[in-house]
Design brief:
4 helices, Jelly Rolls, 36% strand, alpha+beta, three-stranded antiparallel β-sheet, five-stranded antiparallel β-sheet
């Protein structure tokens, strides 16, 4: 199952929880892997509170310098690749009766590191 996400900033965080739930089969049980098909974005599980999402953007930007990378000679986005490397390209979440079995404050988040872009996200239930 695949869907597309449009991001709106160089670094941006979007809550994917409802979109992931919408593509789950109604009788799904097991685990869902949520995977972004790109090397400059990540998928994480965390709280989707507005101020925390802003903090995540700041955290990601502050932990990898924008310049000074060899890859920048090709397309000037090495920082985006390295930020995504720290986040990881996927998250695995339990599924019960067709619903994500997340904790009270947990959400599935896409972290854009090289936007704005159109991103493809796969959801696979095992």
């Amino acid at each position: 199952m695949r869907f597309t996400v449009e991001t709106d900033g160089r670094t941006a965080v979007q809550d994917l929880t409802n979109r992931v739930t919408a593509v789950l089969p109604p009788d799904a049980d097991g685990v869902a892997t949520v995977f972004v098909r790109h090397t400059t974005a990540g998928v994480v599980v965390n709280e989707a509170e507005e101020r925390l999402l802003s903090d995540v953007e700041t955290f990601v930007d502050d932990h990898v310098p924008d310049e000074g990378w060899d890859h920048d000679q090709i397309d000037d986005n090495a920082d985006s690749h390295l930020r995504a490397l720290l986040l990881g390209e996927s998250a695995t979440v339990p599924v019960a009766d067709g619903e994500l079995d997340l904790g009270t404050w947990q959400s599935v988040l896409l972290v854009e590191c090289d936007g704005p872009r159109s991103r493809e996200v796969d959801v696979v239930v095992h």
